[in-house]
Protein 1
Amino acid sequence: MKIYNAKPILIGLAIFIGLATFPLWFNMGKAAPPPDPKLDTPVIQRMAVKQCIMPKDQMRTEHMQLLNDWRTEVVRNNNRIYTASDGKQYNMSLQNECMNCHSNKSQFCDQCHIYAGLQADATPYCWTCHIAPKENK
Amino acid sequence: MGIKFSLLTVVALVLAVFLGVKAAGLQYFFGVIFPYAAIFIFLVGFIYRILKWARSPVPFRIPTTAGQQKSLPWIKQNKIDNPSTTAGVVARMALEVLLFRSLFRNTKVELREGPKIAYQWEKWLWLAGLAFHWSFFIILVRHLRFFTEPVPFFVHMTDRLDGFLQVGLPGIYITDLLFLAAVTYLFIRRVVIPQVRYISLPADYFPLFLLMALGLTGVLMRYFTKVDVVKVKELALGLVTFQPKVPEGIGVLFYIHFFLICTLFAYFPFSKLMHLGGVFLSPTRNLPNDSRMKRHINPWNYPVKVHTYAEYEDHFRDKMIEAGLPVEKE
């Protein structure tokens, strides 16, 4: 069987296969290790009960929404007190509360954010207004 | 009939993966085996379909075009709508693929009182089609962030442009809204216009429902009941680096979404979705109108035995001279 106009068709097909398999050859068979956010800051190590304001799994998926709600509460409603589900009260503040324990932004926040494809300097846009903690490297 | 069948098929697919993951614990099947099979079917099927089409003979030029063809030097040629060169054909094809130019010329015919025939400007199909295809493409590019490490710059760029409204967290993507709106419009159009409904088959409804379900699960996963994207990326990276593993604790919504897209990929080569490759092979779009400049030999012509006049004369010269008929060579 003859292929008519074989040259343009085969070139087009090769380009398509190249694009369609982009993830295969881009990673070259090497799986990057999954991120490993560190929880060994001095403040956390001094804590008797190591727990965040929500369970870990919930924090992993919901923290961005929580931060967004906090922002609304503080900036628009002038309410700085957050009551966790266990009744404990927290100060709604990224810089003073969250980053007090998780003072290791590059070892904690950035680990997953960069892995998940959020650009460290652009999104999440927390740090376009907030001041990132100083870290000793 | 077509609607019900297609809808039930999509619902059955969603139920199958829901039960498979929730009750039977088939995470490995839905997370690894089926995706590999789907991509394999997609690539092999795509190549097979294109090569099959490439084996049909190319017809003569079909100048069904909307512009002046190349003619006398003082008549201006429309070089894109009626190209006579490869460059013109490339431009026409690019406009067709990127902007759906033929669809832009879409008109609606109506019989009015009189009876009078009326042609109307009809751009909604073009607009919705364009919105749908471009959104889908941008969404596809955005998803590369799960399949690459480090994430390449153009994915970040697309992501930033798409999310530039910065509404809420995780930020709203413009294409998410456009995609759902466009797919909904394309579906409603099919159901509401009687003529279109009459010619619609399950093969038309099924991809629409599949894409709708795909969009809805994606939106649910991003904005409402979230899944752990880090684990999702671990799974995706494992697949593309051929070291598949299924991390524990990814929500069932992810498996539904993933199964639906794999179904779409596996279904692709057997369906009308093959217009992705087929558009490049449209004879009215990819053939230059150069019938008057180049000789095109019909590829399915069989060799015809001819007897030219010169041969005829050679054959009968003596008899012709004898009969007093004029001959060209003595």
Note: Chain A touches chain B through 41 residues (CB under 8 Å).
Protein 2
Amino acid sequence: MTTDAARDADGTTAPHPGQELAPLTLPVTRTLIVAGALASRDYQDVHHDAEAAREKGSPDVFMNILTTNGLVGRYLTDRLGPRCVLRRLAIRLGAPNYPGDTMVLSGTVTAVDGDVVEVRVVGANGLGHHVTGTATVQLGTAAR
Amino acid sequence: MSGEKETPERTAVPADAAYERALKAFEGRPATTGGTGKDPVNEPMIRHWCEAMGDAHPAYRGPDATAPPTMLQAWTMGGLAGHQGRAAGAHDALFALLDGAGYTAVVATDCEQEYLRPLRPGDAISYDSVIESVSARKTTKLGTGHFVTTRTDVRANGELAGTHRFRILKYAPAARRGPTERDAGGPSRAKRPRPVVNRDNAGFWDGVAAHKLLIQRCGGCGRLRLPWLPGCNGCGAAEWDTVEASGAGTVFSYVVMHHPPFPAFSASEGATGAAGPYAVGLIELAEGVRMVSNVVGVPYDRVRIGMPVRLEFLRVDEELVLPVFRAGDDPAAGADPAAGAGGEG
């Protein structure tokens, strides 16, 4: 990630392939994991009960995929402006997000077609890539 | 997005073809038909979502608010109470089949969503889903299992608003021993392995049961042998009789077993059962033959070569008696740490 990314994302340059979006650093707290699980109405015990998570082979509770999806969605709209609309989002999970870790979301514009852009997103934590994905975002007529 | 295909992976155990066919039969079957969201799209749930995600996008607030598109699946969730009254469908049957094979844990791996129109407060949610694919058995870091992919069409007031493809791994968690299993190493729980008794050594074990240590004596040359064998390795004669050991012996050599811990071996003599190191002695009997057994009556790290020992019979459990060797009260016992050069066997 380069510092140019922030300037591109926040500046007036039109999105172009190769453009990097400014990263977003998120502390993965136990509260975030539980709040995200409940806000997404996911009551699987592995997302709020550490003891139950351990019995299922996990060292601790871990973030559910709906929260990851929501955070990636937030990252994209944070970076691409208040008028943009998410059209498609596809994510794949890798290393789990456990409490105490930090996830850094980063994005790269891979294609631009009119006011529709494709973005490649990676969320990296201390264990590796928690999430990788691609998104299609419509920037909106007054984007930027 | 990464595609549908999964790289076939080798698995340690051959897959059961009939079981995999049964799983494959679920492909294309409806998982949910006519599902309805428990709540219409509503501002409080949107606000709770945005608070959790830290999402301050202005489109999700105010009089003309829309829901964050990534909430799509949340509107279909059963929540803590689940979806009551829904007829058990193919999805439940598939999960039962997987649970029954030990694939009891679940983890989501992929989520692919398309958003066709924004959801707004008041929209009534309905959805249908279909089981798209069930993978062959895969071995992953989490454990072995099957990937199940479902596709859900989500409607708002009857109009298609989004599609949602979701892939989970149903897997058997890698074995983790619980604390009770790990700590319960006492004699009542951990049994010694049973001796293999056959026609060539049955007489030995009959003797042990009667608290006699019997040494074979060759009928041809008179040579003593232990353990028992069908013939003499000196003269080849098959005839034999026995002599009872006097019970006196010395430590000819020894090893100390540190790892892995075997509670059944270390928890002798009323020990609390903690699995720790234990000494395995090669004992030379006064008659000149040698045998392997435990050295008891002395800490594992005080066993020494040359240490005099005396035979005794240890009742290990209700079925098993074993000959072991007790170190005596010899004042030299353990006096010289440098003498512990045992390592044979």
Note: The longest strand of chain A covers residues 101-113.
